[in-house]
Amino acid sequence: MRPYAMTRGRTSHAGRHRLDLIALVIAEPAADDPVWDMTLSPEHAHILDLCRRRAQSVAELAAELDLAVGVVRVLIGDLADEELVHVTRPVPPAELPDESILREVIDGLRAL
User: Fold this and answer.
1) Using one digit for the tens of pLDDT, what is the confidence trace for 36-62?
2) Using CB atoms within 10 A of its CB, is residue 59 exposed (0-12), middle (13-18) or buried (19+)?
């Protein structure tokens, strides 16, 4: 099937989910309901199957499905809207704690 048909002509997902290449996709318990296997497209079902086994990054899913990342992002967005998958985003470097603060905390704990 052509990517255009898989995404119904969409090139991005309108949802609230920002899907970085390293964002992890995890199947939700609701995805285990057998009715979804009958109502989803084969590509959606394949993504769910892969994410049931273990968390998968967007890049891993694109490689496994042999599809463009943009197409996979749209498909994951569809699944997230149906609450069949949960997407966890990596922490941006700007939000990570400063290494010097962590060292001070460790030193303080050792001093106790």
Assistant:
1) 667 788 888 899 999 998 999 999 999
2) middle
